[in-house]
């Protein structure tokens, strides 16, 4: 059996022994192990990694090339920017088990304190960028969202999916980033206990206005993000992200937080854009990420202990495609 690895001069088939040698050589360096440990948390641009690791760009590029050649790191293009991340491990890779075991072993060693502090600073800057956008444009939220996808274009599909899941009205449901509260109001009509979580106070106030106009009294509001919800020990049965994931500084983190916030048997529903190349949405709509590959979402969910259930896709006339993905937190089985 052979696998294909990309070399600088050409693309050639390497046998499994040669591929294993490449992986082992790539892992035999403490700095490269730190890079892999860092990429566990999110995707990062070269300059971000340089800041976190306090390393020159030329030196970092050398190490990233070694990791990429060995199939231990890959890139994703976000408009004009290149971000590095860990690859999605596929079962037909002859080194799948070896790489999976290597990643698991690497992750048992925590990032050094100074690296965590720099990482948190990068994430805070991303979060602040998104927060400032919504603070400045809260009065034009509907207009900005409409540039990509009008809520009315996919709302019925989301509600149909919720109906098909046959969820009990007694469940506790949380929507993260409810916007003006259109979906939130529908949730409050279907479920007895609903939570709205948003770190942009201006947007949270818009959602409050919508709920008040509907004379609904079963919605509680939390100003903050999922870190806040975790600190408050908030537990729920369903968590929804409606066109929010592409605004988060670390989308992968949302899945791990969902695992910690959901009760056993709970559901995570992600409604977001599929991967696209429309870089203009960064400035016009405050997007940090240009959509996501379905396999990417499934991989993050699996890593967080969630099980992919079903996905629905909806194409829009402007070329964007929406994905609605349901993930399930398994019920712990007593031995």
Structure report:
This protein has helices at 16-27, 30-39, 46-53, 57-69, 96-107, 113-137, 141-146, 151-164, 182-190, 201-213, 226-231, 251-261, 281-285, 294-303; strands spanning 2-6, 11-15, 44-45, 74-78, 81-85, 172-176, 193-198, 219-223, 236-242, 262-273, 307-315, 321-328. With 335 residues, the chain is α/β, with parallel strands linked by helices. It has two domains: 2-111, Orthogonal Bundle (Arc Repressor Mutant, subunit A); 142-328, Vaccinia Virus protein VP39 (Rossmann fold), CATH 3.40.50. The strands form three sheets. The protein has a seven-stranded mixed β-sheet with strand order 8-7-6-9-10-12-11, sandwiched between helices. The protein is globular.
Number of domains: 2
Q: Class of the largest domain, according to the CATH hierarchy? A: Alpha Beta
If classified by CATH, what would the architecture of the largest domain be?
3-Layer(aba) Sandwich
Count of DSSP E strands?
12
Classify the helix fraction into a percent range: 40-55%
CATH topology tier name of the largest domain: Rossmann fold
Unreliable parts:
1-14
Number of helices: 14
Can you summarize the main beta sheet? 7 strands, mixed
Radius of gyration: 21 Å
């Amino acid at each position: 059996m052979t696998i294909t690895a990309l070399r600088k001069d050409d693309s050639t088939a390497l046998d499994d022994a040669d591929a294993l040698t490449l992986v082992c050589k790539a892992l035999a360096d403490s700095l490269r192990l730190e890079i892999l440990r860092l990429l566990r948390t999110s995707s990062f641009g070269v300059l971000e990694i340089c800041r976190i690791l306090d390393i020159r760009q030329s030196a970092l590029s050398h190490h990233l090339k070694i990791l990429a050649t060995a199939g231990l790191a890959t890139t994703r293009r976000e408009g004009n920017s290149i971000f590095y991340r860990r690859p999605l491990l596929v079962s037909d890779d002859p080194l799948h088990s070896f790489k999976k075991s290597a990643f698991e072993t690497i992750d048992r060693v925590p990032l050094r304190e100074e690296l965590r502090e720099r990482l948190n600073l990068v994430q805070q800057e991303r979060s602040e960028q998104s927060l400032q956008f919504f603070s400045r444009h809260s009065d034009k939220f509907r207009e900005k969202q409409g540039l990509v996808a009008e809520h009315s274009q996919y709302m019925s599909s989301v509600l149909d999916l919720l109906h098909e899941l046959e969820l009990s009205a007694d469940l506790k449901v949380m929507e993260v980033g409810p916007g003006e509260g259109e979906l939130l109001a529908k949730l409050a009509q279907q479920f007895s206990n609903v939570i709205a979580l948003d770190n942009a106070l201006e947007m949270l106030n818009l959602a409050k206005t919508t709920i008040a106009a509907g004379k609904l009294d079963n919605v509680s509001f939390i100003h903050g993000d999922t870190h806040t919800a975790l600190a408050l020990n908030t537990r729920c049965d369903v968590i929804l992200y409606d066109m929010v994931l592409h605004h988060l500084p670390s989308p992968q983190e949302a899945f791990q937080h969902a695992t910690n916030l959901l009760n056993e048997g709970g559901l995570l529903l992600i409604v977001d854009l599929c991967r696209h190349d429309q870089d203009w949405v960064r400035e016009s709509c405050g997007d940090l990420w240009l959509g996501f590959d379905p396999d990417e979402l499934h991989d993050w969910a699996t890593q967080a202990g969630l099980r992919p259930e079903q996905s629905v896709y909806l194409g829009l006339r402007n070329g964007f495609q929406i994905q609605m993905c349901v993930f399930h937190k398994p019920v712990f089985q007593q031995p």
